[in-house]
Amino acid sequence: RLSCIRNNIWLASCGVLSSGLAVLSSFGLMLFCGVPFVVTVANAPFLILGVGVDDMFIMIATWEQSSRKKEKSSVKSLLAETYAEAALSVTITTLTDVLAFFIGTWTAFPSVRSFCLYTGTAFVFCYVYTMTFFGAVLVLNHKREEGNRHWLTCMRVDVGKDQAENSCLYNACCIGSCSRQPSQPEGEHPMSVLFKKYYGPFVTNKWIKVLMVLLYGAYLGGSIYGCIQIREGIDLRNLANDASYVIPYYDDDDKYFSTYGPRVMVVITESVDYWNELVRLGIESCAQNLE
Questions:
Q1: Which residues contact 89 (CB under 8 A, 6 or more apart)?
Q2: Buried b (16+ CB within 10 A) or exposed e, 93-115
Q3: Stated pTM of the model
Q4: Signal peptide location in the record (predicted)?
Q5: For 177-236, what is each residue's pLDDT tens digit?
Q6: What is the spatial distance between Cα 111 and Cα 23, in angstroms, rounded to a whole number?
Q7: Please, what is the end-to-end C-alpha distance for the chain in angstroms?
Q8: Spatial distance between the Cα atoms of 16 and 50, rounded to a whole number of angstroms
Q9: Which has the closest alpha carbon to 56: 126, 122, 6, 123?
Q10: Three-class secondary structure of residue 163 per DSSP
C-alpha cells in the first residue's frame, strides 16, 4: 500500500516468520525424537511457506472485512469474528495436508517416511502459530493503525497546518499522501468484487450446478481409476541426468536381462579360512545347491 499507516509490510513479514518458526519447531522435535534427516526433507520449508502464507492471507482478508463491517467494534470482537470466519478454512486446509503426509508415513521407503513425518509435523506447528502468534500480530498492527502510527518508525503521523509547506516527497513518506491529507482506508478489493458480483452468480446458476456435478463425477471416477492402477516403486532412470550413461544401461538391462528376474547373492557373515581347500569346496557346494 502507498499509505504509510496502512502499509502491512511488517504484518506480511510476521506471516512468513510464522511459517519459519513452524519449520524450526518441526525439525527440532523430529531430530530430538531421533527421526533420520534425509536430503528430501530440505524441500519441506517451501511447502510450509506456501501453506503458511495462504493462511496469512485468509486471516488478513477476514480481519479487514470484519473491520469494514464493524468500524466501532472492540479489538476482542474483531478478533473473535476473524477466527470465526477464517479458522474453519485454515483448519480444513491443515487437516487435509496433515492427513496426506501422515498417510505417506506408511510407505516402505525410509526417505519418504522421514519426509512425510517432518512435513506433516511442520503443518501442525504452522497451524498452531497461525492461530496464536499471527493473531496477536494482527491485533498489534491494528492498534498501530488506530494510533495513526508510521509502519516503519511507529511514530505518530499527524496532518496539520504546518504540513502544508512540506514537499510532496516528504508527505508521501511521512504522511502517506501527496495531497497533504491523511490516507483513508481502501474500499473493497477488486478481486472480491469480481467473485461476489460475477463469479458467484455464475456458479450458482442451475445449469452450471449440473455441469459442475458431472465434471466432479468424471474427476472422481478418474481419481479412483488412477488409485487402482498406481504401483509403489521408483524408476531409477528418473534419478539420473538425461545425458547420463546410466539411462542406456537400464534400457539395455530391461531389454536383455529382465526375463531372468532379480539377482541373488550369498553373503558369508563370519570369518572364513579361505586357504583351507575343504572350506572352499563347501562354499562351491553351497553355491551349486542354490543354483
A1: 58
A2: bbeebbeebbebeeeeeeebbbb
A3: 0.67
A4: none
A5: 554 444 455 567 788 888 888 999 999 999 999 999 999 999 999 999 999 998 877 777
A6: 18
A7: 76
A8: 9
A9: 126
A10: helix
